[in-house]
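During the second year of the project, the team shifted from modelling isolated chains to modelling whole assemblies. The rationale, set out in the original proposal, was that interfaces cannot be judged from single-chain predictions alone. As a representative example for this report, we include one of the complexes processed in the last quarter. Its constituent sequences, exactly as entered into the pipeline, are reproduced here:
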Amino acid sequence: MSHEVVEKNIGLWAIMVLVIMSTAGLGEIIPLFFLTAPKGVGSTVEPVRGLQPYDALRLEGRDIYIREGCAHCHTQMVRPFQPETQRYGPFSVAGESVYDHPALWGIKRTGPDLARVGSGYSDFWHREHLRDPASVVPGSIMPAYPWLAETVMDGTLTTTKMRTMNTLLRLTCRTCAVYAEKDIEAGPAKVRGSTEEEALIAYLNGDSDQPGGLGHPAP
Amino acid sequence: MNTHNTYNYTVVRQFARMTLVWGIVGMGIGVWAAAELAFPSLNLGIPWLSFGRLSPVHSSLLLFAFGGNALFATSYYVVQRTCHTRLFNDGLAAFTFWGWQCVIVLALCTLPYGMTSGKAFAELEWPIDILITIVWIAYAVVFFGTIVQRNTSYVYVANWFFGAYILAVAALHILNSAALPVGLWPMKSYSLYPGTVDAMVSAWYSQGLVDAFMPGAFFGVLYYFLPRQLGHPVYSYRLIVVQFWTFVSLALWAASQHLLYTALPDWTQSLGMVCAVFLIAPFLAGVINGFMTVSADWHRLHSDIILRFLVLALFFYGVEGLEGVVTSIRSVNAFTQYTDWTVSHVHAAGLGWIGFLAFGAFYAMLPRLFNIEQMYSIPLILLHFWFATVGTMLYLLALGGAGMVQSLMWYAQNDDGTLAYRFVESLQVSHPLYVVRLLGGMLYLAGMCLMTYNAWKTVASTLPKARKNEDSVSEVDSVIDHHPAEVHHDSHPPLDPRHGPHRPVDPRHSANPHTGSQHSSESPAHHADH
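Output from the structure prediction step:
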């Protein structure tokens, strides 16, 4: 076919462009919905062994992380390089992110990676750091977040958020755990009265006996 | 004479004005954010001024408000001039203008308050995403509708690049923004895609919009304004065909190069890397074609300031594209990813390619839009050129250097295998470079202000006349000056006979923006030369 035909027919041109462009999404994105791995290893749509959805307070904490734009300066993706695992901990795997809507892998490290920050610092350290970063990390250029400690949450959206997460998990993830009805009903009570700072720290410092925060180590 | 045959410049003027306004606002916020990185106390403890909230305001404004408006203006201008017909539907075109400004104002009302989807370069929340979709569909209808009712047999190449951008952004925006709403105020939603898939969809969107189709659309600007400025066709039509189709085929496949060494499956990473390396084909085709088009006219750079902007834009595109190809190779990427190198790279495209092309095109287009001889002040354009050039170079070198230093320090180990530096030390070393970057950004912003002042004075000089003649005479003027039938004789730059006609490789395949035809016998250059 002579190229002139395409140059004179804008409809044909548009169809060609659309078909050619959509191959990329079909080839690189669609298969990700169907990847499986041996049980417990986790994949793009299967959680690693033992990983649970974020509990109510951590889910709210994660939304504060998104709201404050933490992901503009912090990644949550430890790459498999020796100096990097030495600095941050075990490298990240796909099955750790299945409860993340959206992913917070980040694109730039103005500050260090936070994928495993929970395993290294106490709640007290985080509190001091959020209020005045340079007081615990001399030379830090991170902004202070004093308003987080002053804002008490009321948990009005918590139920909706948990139900929405359940819908998403049922849609996209075959082996994911979902919130039980009693957890959803108890959600607002767990959030109410906490400061935003406490919620953010709960998200950052998810402890290892209760998987779900950032501190959860890779299997 | 039928006024419906004249061009719709009203909407082009509106978009052009707002491009300048939002450019200053967006760059001003960028400068402030850069200052916060150099001097953290400037965060001032105010939530909406903290870096994490300002950063998306800066990137959204420059992508959607500066780049977006500039492309609305230039694509509406070029599609009318090259199709020899008025925009498809004036009402719908006006809707795209007001709708788009509404999107930008809503962005300014939500992002600083932390209402964000958290997805890179697609931070706007779901109600605004819906509005974007509606405006974008209207844009597509106006643009393709204009092409359908064209008075030329061929669709001129510049329109391919605009058209591909419109189609691609529609698909990218709708699929990447798919989410379930959680609340209307504050606006809140959760992305439809789970973790790894979401990261991939996000990378696909970022690659498509920021790295590929928005910069690509500016080839539409280049392929109209460069031959227009030179007065002869683009060097090779065939190279454009090669460039366009390889670009459309590979650009989105290269998406997963942004996730090398992450938790994305290895095969997806490798596929992206290979396609990103192959992107050197359209990249070289574009650069070679651009420079070869100018090749017989280097001497004009002494006298033609607009040409300087266009040529330097091409140079920065070369830098950016080469960087992109090299850093998409795994082992190189391991070194540059997550550092300030990435920021430098994005700004090579933003400040260098998109910025310089928009400036050059606007300096060429504004006087024609307002029907006057030339810009208010040529020395101010010259000053803008040097501010922008020095500013961009400072910016790119400072952050490129900072990126390399950061990476070296992150990976440095002592003899006993322990890490040589704490993370914060890589920041302290970067401080002087952040100051240089701030300086570069300020220079660039100053240049932008000069341009806006220049444009304002240019337009102000036409105001009394325009006001008087708003309804009747100016419409007739534009019929006389810009009637489609006359378009290829209209105010193209005089050709200098001393330097002879430009010879395209294949005379049958020379691209000509004035007639929309490939047959060079119809081109103004040949009319003038014979």
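Chain A touches chain B through 85 residues (CB under 8 Å). The first helix of chain A runs from residue 3 to 8.
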